[in-house]
Amino acid sequence: MSEFKVSETVNSKLKTVDWNNLRFGVYFSDHVFITKYKDGKWDEGNIVPYGSMPMEPGLCTLHYGQTIFEGLKAFRAVNGGANIFRPDKNAHRLNNSAAMVCIPPYDEDKLVSAMKQLVKVDKQWIPQHKGQSLYLRPVMFGSSNFLGVTASSEYMLIVMTSPVASYYAEGLNPIKILVETERVRAVTGGLGMAKTAGNYAASLLAGQKAHQKGYSQVLWIDGVNRKYVDEVGAMNIMFVINDELITPSLDRGAILAGVTRDSVLTLGREFGMKVTERDITLLEVLDAHKNGVLQEVFGTGTAAVISPVGMLHHSGKDYEINGMKIGPVAQKFYDTITGMQYGEIPDTRAWIQHIDF
Ligand code: COI
Asked: What is the CATH number of domain 175-326?
């Protein structure tokens, strides 16, 4: 396990945190991990105080968006120390995203070590209560200054952390989602599988309009055939139809390979459920609703965890799901995953990496 040099802050912001009103991504912890890529290699990397970074107007990433990120969480474990949930999966996905936008890979084991050490350095920033966690946000971007449309020659990888509560104001209460039929998030052959800034920029206008109409987010429909369900943007989407757990497959290459998505599919199979990854049309979902067999809809994501969807809105019509209540399937996944994350139930799959302190 790598050990990184640490320069500790002399000006902690810990006392500025309102722990009873954390929300999502509002507070930033005292330290970050930073490593720089230059002349074909990453430097040794170190942990330094969080602070502003010098930047030139010619920074290539500002112009052409050569940037990717990740999201994962550390939890205060009930028996002491902290648990990080599947950091190896996030480190691997970061490199998958990197390859799609010509960013050089970073050693995955080293990144996991850096994240564990960072969490230990800022252990006081890990919230105390269940439902809260320390969110880790690795971000990697081109850091050269030039205006030609080519890959940067220099890069930075930064991991910052943020104490968070639930992503949606609704918490575990069902959210309402608007089916977006006009705009698209990503298309096959594009960057939909990369966790890159452009996908999120592409979602802003639709998200804003959905908010104005009282919906939390939009459900994206595929950009090529305009009929298959893709994802919600901040989370993957799952349907329970006739007791079968169905989620859009990754094969069309347009949605993010979610770590929580993978965890739910694995657990669903272990629970003995019928689990299917396949293309699913919006029409099939609405038909299932009409026929009374759409039992549950929920989103999965690091930030969102398990987020029940209580209503889908499409073409001027609201489709209420499970009486706007969380269903037993979503509840079971939520209880199992969060139970493991906080160390309340055994981790039999080596998903948890424990940090002692
Ligand atoms: C996550 O679930 O970690 C995400 O990155 C979604 C969103 C906050 C951008």
From this structure: 3.20.10.10
